[in-house]
């Protein structure tokens, strides 16, 4: 029985049967496939797909998220490719669409991430597992109750040279708000460049330094302190803020723990 679904970019994707040879082009969605019980169907992934480490180590690599190895993908004969609007590049996706069914996610909020889970669960033939996942994540966030806290003003840095931050209309921004934090750069474009002068005057009580895509470490706090001695900095794990698949099972707990550090 064929499967016809609409992905998060409002494209119709048709498969003759649930996918059995999947190439995933998105790290967080790769991890999700294993969580939903479809790990044995994953035949290809990007070099950035590192979770779960014991399961992905031996799977064929098909390049990066922004540069695909089309020959490697062809050799795997996939019956489904899973990508993401932001993490992958449109020219590469367009080329893949000529030969394979491609299901695309487009995520800027927690609700959209849960829609993604349901959509992937349907197209891989694991809708029940997806629904269990969605219920657990929803319950975890419902128990978080960020309204019990006064909002903490934060800025969330993702890069240096140039400094870049998470702005509005991003998944990171939505997670911050759900954790009782107000992103002072929410009115800015999605990933604005910022200067030290802007960070000094943006009104952030804390500047959060993310572990990826740029790997901020303690040494970077020391460097920032030399320029902004009156500002408070905090290292944060990027996965709860930007991995919108299996990591969601732990995000609410991480946000709760993070609040104790303010």
Short characterization:
The chain has 262 residues and is an alpha/beta fold. Helix content is 37%, strand content 18%. The strands form 3 sheets. It has a 5-stranded parallel β-sheet, with helices on both faces.
Break the fold down into its secondary structure elements and pairings.
Layout: E1 3-6, E2 12-15, E3 22-24, H1 27-35, E4 42-45, H2 53-56, E5 60-61, H3 70-76, E6 80-84, H4 90-97, E7 102-105, H5 110-123, H6 127-142, E8 152-159, E9 164-165, H7 171-178, E10 181-183, H8 196-201, E11 206-210, H9 218-227, E12 233-236, H10 239-242, H11 248-259
Parallel strand pairs: 3-4, 3-6, 4-5, 6-7, 8-10, 8-11, 11-12
Antiparallel strand pairs: 1-2, 8-9
Helix pairs in contact: 5-6, 6-11
Q: Domains counted in the coordinates: how many?
A: 2
User: Mean pLDDT score, rounded?
Assistant: 95
Beta strand count? 12
Strand order of the largest sheet: 5-4-3-6-7
Say what oligomer this is: single chain
**What CATH architecture of the largest domain would you give?**
3-Layer(aba) Sandwich
The general outline is globular
Helical residue percent band: 25-40%
Number of helices: 11
CA-CA gap between termini: 53 Å
Which CATH class of the largest domain is shown?
Answer: Alpha Beta
- Rg to the nearest angstrom? 19 Å
Strand fraction equals 15-25%
- In N-to-C order, the SSE pattern is EEEHEHEHEHEHHEEHEHEHEHH
By CATH, the topology of the largest domain is Rossmann fold
Q: Give the CATH H-level superfamily of the largest domain.
A: Nitrogenase molybdenum iron protein domain
Major β-sheet profile = 5 strands, parallel
The helix-and-strand class reads: alpha/beta
Low-confidence stretches: none
């Amino acid at each position: 029985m064929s499967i016809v679904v609409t992905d998060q970019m409002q494209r119709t994707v048709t498969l003759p049967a649930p996918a059995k040879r999947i190439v995933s082009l998105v790290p967080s969605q790769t991890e999700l496939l294993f969580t939903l019980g479809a790990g044995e169907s994953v035949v290809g992934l990007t070099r950035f797909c590192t979770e779960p480490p014991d399961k992905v180590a031996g799977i064929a690599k098909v390049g990066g998220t922004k540069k695909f190895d089309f020959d490697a993908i062809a050799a795997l004969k996939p019956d489904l490719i899973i990508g993401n609007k932001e993490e992958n590049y449109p020219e590469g996706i367009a080329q893949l669409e000529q030969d394979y069914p491609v299901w695309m996610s487009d995520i800027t909020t927690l609700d959209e991430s849960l829609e993604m889970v349901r959509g992937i669960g349907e197209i891989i033939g694991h809708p029940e597992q997806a629904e269990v996942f969605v219920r657990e994540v929803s319950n975890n966030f419902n128990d978080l109750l960020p309204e019990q806290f006064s909002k903490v003003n934060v800025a969330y840095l993702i890069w240096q040279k140039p400094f870049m931050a998470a702005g509005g209309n991003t998944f990171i921004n939505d997670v911050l708000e759900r954790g009782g934090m107000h992103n002072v750069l929410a009115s800015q474009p999605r990933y604005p460049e910022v200067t030290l002068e802007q960070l000094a005057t943006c009104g952030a009580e804390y500047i959060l330094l993310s572990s990826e895509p740029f790997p901020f470490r303690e040494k970077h706090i020391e460097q920032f302190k030399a320029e902004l001695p009156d500002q408070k900095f905090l290292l944060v794990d990027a996965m709860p803020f930007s991995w919108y698949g299996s990591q969601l099972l732990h995000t609410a707990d991480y946000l709760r723990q993070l609040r104790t550090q303010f």
